[in-house]
Write a structure and sequence with these properties.
Layout: H1 3-31
Length: 32
């Protein structure tokens, strides 16, 4: 696997993880 593909895959997983984290944090704030 070349570096570009690895980086793209990493970015995809990082973004998914960040979105999930932000979503759970927002949920926590809404619930108090």
């Amino acid at each position: 696997m070349d570096a570009w593909a690895t980086e793209a895959l990493f970015a995809k997983f990082w973004r998914a993880g960040a979105e999930e984290f932000v979503g759970s944090e927002l949920k926590k704030m809404k619930e108090g």
